[in-house]
Amino acid sequence: xxxxxxxxxxxxxxxxxxxxxxxxxxxxxxxxxxxxxxxxxxxxxxxxxxxxxxxxxxxxxxxxxxxxxxxxxxxxxxxxxxxxxxxxxxxxxxxxxxxxxxxxxxxxxxxxxxxxxxxxxxxxxxxxxxxxxxxxxxxxxxxxxxxxxxxxxxxxxxxxxxxxxxxxxxxxxxxxxxxxxxxxxxxxxxxxxxxxxxxxxxxxxxxxxxxxxxxxxxxxxxxxxxxxxxxxxxxxxxxxxxxxxxxxxxxxxxxxxxxxxxxxxxxxxxxxxxxxxxxxxxxxxxxxxxxxxxxxxxxxxxxxxxxxxxxxxxxxxxxxxxxxxxxxxxxxxxxxxxxxxxxxxxxxxxxxxxxxxxxxxxxxxxxxxxxxxxxxxxxxxxxxxxxxxxxxxxxxxxxxxxxxxxxxxxxxxxxxxxxxxxxxxxxxxxxxxxxxxxxxxxxxxxxxxxxxxxxx
Length: 456
Known about the structure:
- By secondary structure, this protein is an all-alpha fold.
- It has one domain: MFS general substrate transporter like domains (Growth Hormone, Chain: A), CATH 1.20.1250.
- The chain contains 18 helices and two strands.
- The protein has a two-stranded antiparallel sheet.
- The longest helix has 32 residues.
C-alpha cells in the first residue's frame, strides 16, 4: 500500500486515485488516519464496555428496571438537544482540540466514578449526574469525529474511511460488552471499571500523538446561535442533503429499537435465556461489521441510491421475518442479514451526505447525523409501548414494514433524491480536478445545491 506523503503543515498530499487503488484499505495509506482509526476504535470499545459496567452498577445499587431507563434517557436527551451546538463548535474550532477536550472530560468523569466506587461512596444519583455530563459531552465529540475524517483523508477516500470506521464501531459493539461482562465475573466490577477508564485515556493519547490539528478556526463573525441557525438554513435550502438526513433518520427511528427488544425475544418468545440473547446480539453486531466492510469495499462505485434503497427495503423485510420467525435457529441468520442491510444503508447514506456538503458546514451537518445515535434510544419508548400492548413480534414486524414503506415513499416521491447518483458523480469529478496541496482544500459548496433547490 502506498504511503501518503504529508506536507509541511502535517496534512496529507494525495495523488490521484486509479482503479487499482480502490480497494478495501485505501484510506489506511494515511498515517494520520491510521492513528485516528486506532483512537476511534479504542474509544468506542470503551463505550461498549461502559454500557455494561454502568448498567451493572445501576442495577446493583437500585434493583430497578426504571433506573436503567433513566440512565439511557439522561444520555439520549442531551445528545439530541445539544447536537447542533456541538456541530457549530466543530465548524468554529480546531476539531482535534475539540475531540481531545471532550475525551478528557470523559476520562475525568470515569475517574470520578472509579474513586466513588472504591471509597464505597457511590450512589445512583452520582451515576445519573455523570451520565448526564457524558451525554452533554458526546454531542461535541461526535460531530468533530465525523468531520475530521474528511480533513485527514479528503473526499476521494471518504467513503472508504467512514465505512472502515463503521466496521470498527460495530466490532466494538460485540467485543466491548462481551469483554466487560467477562471481566466483571473474573476480577470484579471495580478493576473492570478501572480498565475501561484506561481505554478512554488510551484513545485520547492516540489522538494527541498521531493526529495533527485539523484546521484553523473558521473566519466568521457569527455567534454560536447564529451559526446553529445557519446550519439549519443550509439543510433546509439544500434539499438533497435535507432529504438524505430524513431518509436516514426515520428508518433508524423505526428499525433500530428492535435491539432493545432482543431480550424479550430471547427470554419470552424462544425461551433461550441469557445465552440466546448473547447469540442474537453477537449476530446483530457481526452483521454490522460485514455490512460496513462491504461498503468500504464498494468505495465510490456507482449506483449508490439503488443500493441504499434495496438495503433499506431488505432490512425491513428481514426484520419482519425475524419478528415472526417460529424458530430461534432461523431467527439468528435473519437478524444477522438484517443487520448487514441496515448498516450498508446507514453507511452509504452518511457518506453520501459527507461527500456532498462543503467543509464550512461539515460539523453542523454531522451533528444532525448524530441524531442516529440518540433517536433509536428515544424510539425504544413507543415501540416498547406497542410491544407491551400487542407483543414484541407484532411491534417489531409493524415497525419494520413502516420503515420499508417510508424508504420506498421517499424514493418514489422525490425527484431530488433520485438525482443523488448524478450529484455524487459531479462531486467526484470536482474532487479529481481540484489540486491537492492538502486535503483540506476540498471542493467548495457541493454541486448538489443548484439541482437540490428545484424540487422535493
